[in-house]
């Protein structure tokens, strides 16, 4: 009997539906070639969810996500929703999905495809062959800690407070994810903190070190202060394999790492933790190019690859997709965001078609 999976497909807003449509074409090829049965359950999210039901994360969308084996998300947001109440903004749907699905680990690979080495703002020799993974804690730390807020003191001066909190169990579970993925890569983890100044990250370092000693001694562990890590990422990024860090440090370092590759339209991500994981490109809804068939669908297509690797136990599909993308880039095809002199410019749909054609030959 063929294996059957249900995937919640949430295209969202702006270029979200365009890039998701190309990723769905890819899912259908994999389905046919591997003899799987994929039930794709498409639901509105973000601005589209708000327009359909008055809420960016409609109940039926959340249910579909919870019941699925994996979630594929396009992007949410757009200028038309920037003035509505904060609690109903499209971006709230992402926070809702993360907390409802208990997605505490965000995995962001930053991989430089050979053909795009020149697209980076760094020297080619610094980024050539780069393949690193930032594992960011996603549901704790200073973004969620209490107390928080702004109060007015006696005398009228205002004071703002946010609190950096981590429990041992929160640190253990994110560190486990990092060590586990490192075992499937080059077996190196660098844990990033600010243990010299912040007690909470001193605890982070202690707990990561203990866990490593007890369960993951086959992985090489190092520690780095966040200010140094920010510097090392541009000085010599290839020294890293997996970086694991807190929510706020990970937010900043993963954006920095993504820029090493030169294009936001190329980078996938996975959010793991609970029963169902979520896969999405790192870019937003790009309202400036929406509806123009100009978006780069490769980040979303590579997110499908991560889905097969982490949720559907088919790492071979991820490898095949990465190879297909590499070969298309080697052949000179480029969407506008990665276009350079002498290359052949294609639209979103044509790029999707190229992936489909090459994948059909590969699987
Ligand atoms: P953005 O990522 O949407 O766009 C930044 C720039 O990159 C734009 O010039 C855009 O044209 C370009 N770009 C992005 N993705 C591209 C692709 N696949 N192909 C080609 N070019 C691409 O970020 P922004 O402009 O700051 O935000 C736009 C909207 O997206 C906002 O409403 C924001 O809140 C939302 N947003 C959503 C997510 C998400 O859904 N996960 C993430 C970030 C921003």
UniProtKB/TrEMBL annotation:
<keyword id="KW-0479">Metal-binding</keyword>
<dbReference type="Pfam" id="PF00180">
    <property type="entry name" value="Iso_dh"/>
</dbReference>
<comment type="pathway">
    <text>Amino-acid biosynthesis; L-leucine biosynthesis; L-leucine from 3-methyl-2-oxobutanoate: step 3/4.</text>
</comment>
<feature type="domain" description="Isopropylmalate dehydrogenase-like">
    <location>
        <begin position="6"/>
        <end position="355"/>
    </location>
</feature>
<feature type="binding site">
    <location>
        <begin position="284"/>
        <end position="296"/>
    </location>
    <ligand>
        <name>NAD(+)</name>
    </ligand>
</feature>
<keyword id="KW-0560">Oxidoreductase</keyword>
<feature type="binding site">
    <location>
        <position position="227"/>
    </location>
    <ligand>
        <name>substrate</name>
    </ligand>
</feature>
<keyword id="KW-0963">Cytoplasm</keyword>
<dbReference type="InterPro" id="IPR004429">
    <property type="entry name" value="Isopropylmalate_DH"/>
</dbReference>
<feature type="site" description="Important for catalysis">
    <location>
        <position position="194"/>
    </location>
</feature>
<comment type="similarity">
    <text>Belongs to the isocitrate and isopropylmalate dehydrogenases family. LeuB type 1 subfamily.</text>
</comment>
<keyword id="KW-0520">NAD</keyword>
<dbReference type="GO" id="GO:0009098">
    <property type="term" value="P:L-leucine biosynthetic process"/>
</dbReference>
<keyword id="KW-0460">Magnesium</keyword>
<feature type="site" description="Important for catalysis">
    <location>
        <position position="143"/>
    </location>
</feature>
<keyword id="KW-0464">Manganese</keyword>
<dbReference type="GO" id="GO:0000287">
    <property type="term" value="F:magnesium ion binding"/>
</dbReference>
<feature type="binding site">
    <location>
        <position position="227"/>
    </location>
    <ligand>
        <name>Mg(2+)</name>
    </ligand>
</feature>
<dbReference type="GO" id="GO:0003862">
    <property type="term" value="F:3-isopropylmalate dehydrogenase activity"/>
</dbReference>
<comment type="subunit">
    <text>Homodimer.</text>
</comment>
<feature type="binding site">
    <location>
        <position position="98"/>
    </location>
    <ligand>
        <name>substrate</name>
    </ligand>
</feature>
<dbReference type="InterPro" id="IPR024084">
    <property type="entry name" value="IsoPropMal-DH-like_dom"/>
</dbReference>
<feature type="binding site">
    <location>
        <position position="136"/>
    </location>
    <ligand>
        <name>substrate</name>
    </ligand>
</feature>
<dbReference type="InterPro" id="IPR019818">
    <property type="entry name" value="IsoCit/isopropylmalate_DH_CS"/>
</dbReference>
<keyword id="KW-0432">Leucine biosynthesis</keyword>
<feature type="binding site">
    <location>
        <position position="251"/>
    </location>
    <ligand>
        <name>Mg(2+)</name>
    </ligand>
</feature>
<dbReference type="GO" id="GO:0005829">
    <property type="term" value="C:cytosol"/>
</dbReference>
<dbReference type="GO" id="GO:0051287">
    <property type="term" value="F:NAD binding"/>
</dbReference>
<feature type="binding site">
    <location>
        <begin position="78"/>
        <end position="91"/>
    </location>
    <ligand>
        <name>NAD(+)</name>
    </ligand>
</feature>
<protein>
    <recommendedName>
        <fullName>3-isopropylmalate dehydrogenase</fullName>
        <ecNumber>1.1.1.85</ecNumber>
    </recommendedName>
</protein>
<feature type="binding site">
    <location>
        <position position="255"/>
    </location>
    <ligand>
        <name>Mg(2+)</name>
    </ligand>
</feature>
<keyword id="KW-0100">Branched-chain amino acid biosynthesis</keyword>
<comment type="function">
    <text>Catalyzes the oxidation of 3-carboxy-2-hydroxy-4-methylpentanoate (3-isopropylmalate) to 3-carboxy-4-methyl-2-oxopentanoate. The product decarboxylates to 4-methyl-2 oxopentanoate.</text>
</comment>
<keyword id="KW-0028">Amino-acid biosynthesis</keyword>
<feature type="binding site">
    <location>
        <position position="108"/>
    </location>
    <ligand>
        <name>substrate</name>
    </ligand>
</feature>
């Amino acid at each position: 009997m063929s294996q059957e999976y249900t995937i919640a497909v949430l295209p969202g807003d702006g270029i979200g539906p365009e890039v998701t449509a190309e990723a769905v074409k890819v899912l259908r090829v994999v389905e046919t070639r591997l003899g799987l049965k994929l039930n794709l359950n498409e639901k509105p999210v973000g601005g589209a969810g708000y327009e359909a039901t008055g809420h960016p994360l409609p109940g039926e969308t959340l249910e579909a996500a919870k019941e699925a084996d994996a979630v594929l998300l396009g992007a949410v947001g757009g200028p038309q929703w920037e003035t509505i109440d904060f609690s109903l903004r499209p971006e709230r749907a992402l926070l809702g999905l993360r907390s409802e699905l208990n997605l505490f680990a965000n995995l962001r690979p930053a991989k430089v495809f050979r053909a795009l080495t020149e697209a980076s703002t760094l020297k080619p020799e610094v980024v050539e062959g780069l393949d690193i993974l930032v594992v960011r804690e996603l549901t704790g730390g200073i973004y969620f800690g209490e107390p928080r807020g702004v109060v007015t003191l006696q005398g009228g001066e205002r004071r703002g407070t946010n609190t950096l909190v981590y429990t041992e169990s929160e640190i253990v579970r994110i560190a486990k994810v990092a060590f586990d993925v490192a075992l499937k890569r080059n077996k190196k983890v660098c844990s990033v903190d600010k243990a010299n100044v912040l007690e909470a990250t001193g605890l982070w370092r202690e707990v990561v070190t203990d866990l490593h000693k007890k369960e993951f001694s086959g992985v090489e562990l190092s520690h780095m202060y966040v200010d140094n890590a920010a510097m090392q990422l541009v000085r010599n990024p290839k020294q890293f394999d997996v970086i694991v860090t807190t929510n706020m440090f990970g937010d900043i370092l993963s954006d920095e790492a993504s820029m090493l590759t030169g294009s936001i339209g190329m980078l996938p991500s996975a959010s793991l933790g609970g029963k169902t994981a979520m896969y999405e490109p790192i870019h937003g809804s790009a309202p400036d190019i929406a509806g123009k068939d100009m978006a780069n669908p490769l980040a979303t297509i590579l997110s499908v690859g991560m889905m097969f690797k982490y949720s559907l136990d088919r790492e071979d599909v991820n490898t095949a997709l990465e190879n297909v993308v590499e070969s298309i880039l080697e052949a000179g095809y480029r969407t506008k965001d990665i276009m350079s002199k002498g290359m052949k410019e294609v639209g979103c749909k044509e790029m999707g078609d190229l992936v489909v054609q090459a994948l059909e030959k590969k699987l």
